[in-house]
Task: inverse folding
């Protein structure tokens, strides 16, 4: 191997060979450039866990994130797995009035948009779940599955799929969840995924790299059950972090936070799009830094349903307005009790409402100014 720092004499023969080589370099470079250009135009993204095939029409101007691109790829794979009849059920216009027709009630009481999981083949169902996994965090996906499994408990009489319970399967069970897509999946143009059934109503609007989770309902019945030998609490973090915060307040702060009346259910639940309520409780500016951190951690139990990239951006936004965010409480302050609480800030409202006992919970997260991504698509 030659040493670039060492000077040596070059024979005339060597100089001649070198001269001829230099003359050929421009031509060789041109050939290499053409070859690389042809390869780039024909090559697709290499397969792997972190790569996706981005639609050709969107490669040049795509402002979205890699996570959005994965979601688009997963959505297109799901749609491709369907026949024309099922695809027509799934795909709806982005501006369709049906978008607001979601609910947390059993599907026998309120019809849902889209296609029923129970009507899909095994491979189609797997593709549907892959789409949800692409939009949600591992934590959010796990929460969704836990809520659905809780509904399966209701359908099977409390035996986790192994019993012959009397609960009507026509009302409960993880086959009775529906998926709809509003708009065409795109890394640039807005589209929305709606998924839900009993105690679950996910609305995720995708606009480029921005994901909007609101409005979304999560619930649990029962709140604690055994599944495949493990204890499951679908809304355990939401409950435990709230009780941690209320008990971190001193007496004066609790007097500000605790409301006189206890709402029986969610004030801003399904069907309440556009409704407004006055902030109540203790303001974030009246909390210590440690208490504010607890409040943000509580909010994160909902926000972190989204994939990591989107959740981090949303939490950063909420954190800047934490001093103007209220925390309100109604009910006992001993963990294990049925207590209502609400978080309300400039861009977020969260409610947690036990339905008479701790075993049946309804929750909602909204952004009154940006539900369904309204601010992003103006």
Result:
């Amino acid at each position: 191997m030659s040493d670039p720092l060492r000077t040596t004499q070059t024979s005339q023969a060597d100089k001649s060979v070198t001269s001829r080589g230099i003359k050929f370099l421009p031509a060789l470079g041109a050939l290499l450039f053409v070859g690389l250009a042809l390869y780039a135009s024909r090559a697709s993204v290499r397969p792997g866990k972190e790569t996706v095939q981005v639609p050709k029409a969107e490669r040049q101007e795509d402002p979205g994130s890699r996570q959005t691109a994965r979601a688009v790829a997963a959505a297109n794979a799901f749609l491709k797995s369907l026949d024309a009849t099922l695809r027509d059920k799934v795909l709806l216009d982005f501006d369709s009035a049906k978008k607001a027709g979601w609910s947390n009630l059993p599907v026998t009481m309120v019809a849902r948009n889209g296609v029923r999981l129970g009507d899909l083949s095994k491979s189609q169902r797997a593709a549907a779940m892959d789409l949800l996994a692409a939009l949600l965090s591992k934590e959010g996906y796990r929460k969704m599955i836990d809520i659905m499994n809780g509904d399966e408990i209701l359908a099977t009489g409390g035996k986790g799929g192994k019993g012959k319970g009397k609960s009507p399967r026509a009302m409960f069970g993880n086959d009775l969840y529906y998926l709809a897509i509003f708009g065409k999946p795109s890394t640039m143009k807005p589209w929305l995924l709606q998924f839900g059934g009993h105690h679950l109503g996910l609305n995720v609007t995708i606009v480029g790299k921005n994901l909007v989770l609101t409005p979304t309902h999560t619930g649990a019945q029962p709140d604690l059950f055994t599944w495949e030998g493990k204890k499951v609490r679908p809304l355990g973090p939401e409950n435990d972090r709230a009780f941690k915060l209320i008990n971190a307040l001193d007496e004066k702060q609790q007097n500000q936070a605790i409301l006189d009346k206890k709402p029986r259910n969610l004030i801003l639940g399904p069907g309440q799009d556009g409704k407004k309520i006055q902030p109540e409780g203790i303001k974030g500016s009246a909390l210590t830094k440690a208490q504010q951190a607890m409040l943000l951690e509580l909010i994160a139990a909902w926000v972190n349903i989204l994939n990591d990239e989107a959740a981090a951006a949303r939490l950063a936004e909420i954190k800047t307005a934490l001093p103007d965010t209220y925390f309100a409480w109604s009910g006992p302050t001993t963990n294990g009790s049925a207590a209502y609480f609400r978080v309300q800030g400039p861009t977020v409202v969260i409610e947690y409402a036990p339905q008479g006992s701790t075993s049946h919970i309804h929750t909602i997260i909204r952004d009154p100014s940006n539900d369904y991504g309204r601010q992003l698509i103006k």
